Amino acid sequence: MSRWQGLLVGVVIGLLALGGWRGEAWGQRTLKFAHAARPGTQYDVAAQKFKELVEERTSGALKIQIFPGGQLGYERDIVEGLQIGTIDSAVITNAVVAAFFPKLMVFDLPFIFADGAHARKVVDGPIGQQLLDGLTSIRLKGLAFAEGGFRSLINSKMAVRTVEDLRKLKFRVMETPLYISLFRAMQGTAIPMSMGEVYTSLQQGVIDGLEIPTSVMRDFKFHKIAPYVSLTEHTYSPIILLMNIRLYQGLPSQTQQILVQAARDAAAIERKFVDDSLKADLDALTKEGAKVNAVEKKGFQERARLVHAEYEGKIGKDLLEAVLKTRP
């Protein structure tokens, strides 16, 4: 047992003896919170609000130190850090966590949700809670789902208007099997790649484009070298507020409740930020030279069914059907 863990156990025992949360008994602790996005993005908004609420509701006894921009590694590195305890808390893209816990892939299936309201209803409801609870099996505590937004396409070569246009392009995808399968089903070329390599790869022509929320297109200035933005909105991208499970389980129950509620409240604030930013992002992209176009979604949706069928076994037929039954 490390010195830190020993101190934590001693504090918990003391709190139990006192019968609950007492800031003066707890003493001050600082948790390392990581994310891979830039300051000011939706990931950072969720992190900053979580920090603010936790510190306020524990009267400063629990501090959160945020490490943005991949300072502690990119997203897969952060998940692994959470599992072994070198990172205490984080906000991570759902698809990356799904590589460790495949049932989460249900939320990344293309066109699984009718719209944003439908997606939020599901992730905040019993299905979402079931999946958050299931993360204990991979040594993580799922606190709440925030939102990355719907993902669309950006590339340097041409406007994508139909699914057939993807045959002509090479797209970077996250290093997860589902996203590779998605582009193969749509007959595009998928190149798995970490986010840190993308800008240079676009400049060098290794890839023609990538699929991300419009906010990330703007934040990373991808439109400066890849001006074609096609609003496929093919996948909804939750982002998850997480903690190391041992740390969470070692805390008094009242502190656990504070952390969960702070995460949920931070997620609600972050979603409003996403809503408010969407039109501003599109306006800014257009003003700065991006060529934004709508697409014919029917062909994309038809090919998406191939991905649903391929991943039914990995996700679980019952879970997939439960999500589909919630469609309005």
Explain the layout of strands and helices.
Layout: H1 3-18, H2 23-26, E1 29-34, H3 42-57, E2 62-67, H4 75-84, E3 89-93, H5 94-98, H6 116-123, H7 126-134, E4 140-155, E5 170-173, H8 177-185, E6 189-192, H9 198-204, E7 209-213, H10 214-219, E8 228-244, H11 245-249, H12 253-287, E9 291-293, H13 297-315, H14 317-325
Parallel strand pairs: 1-2, 1-3, 5-6, 5-7, 8-9
Antiparallel strand pairs: 3-8, 4-7, 4-8
Helix pairs in contact: 3-12, 8-13
Structural descriptors:
328 residues; alpha/beta; D-Maltodextrin-Binding Protein, domain 2; nine-stranded mixed beta sheet; 9 strands; 48% helix; 20% strand; globular; disordered N terminus
Description:
By secondary structure, the chain is α/β, with parallel strands linked by helices. The chain has one domain: Bacterial extracellular solute-binding protein, family 7 (D-Maltodextrin-Binding Protein, domain 2). It is built from 14 helices and 9 strands. Strands 1, 2, 3, 4, 5, 6, 7, 8 and 9 form a 9-stranded mixed β-sheet that branches. Helix 3 (42-57) links the parallel strand 1 and strand 2. The protein starts with a helix and ends with a helix.
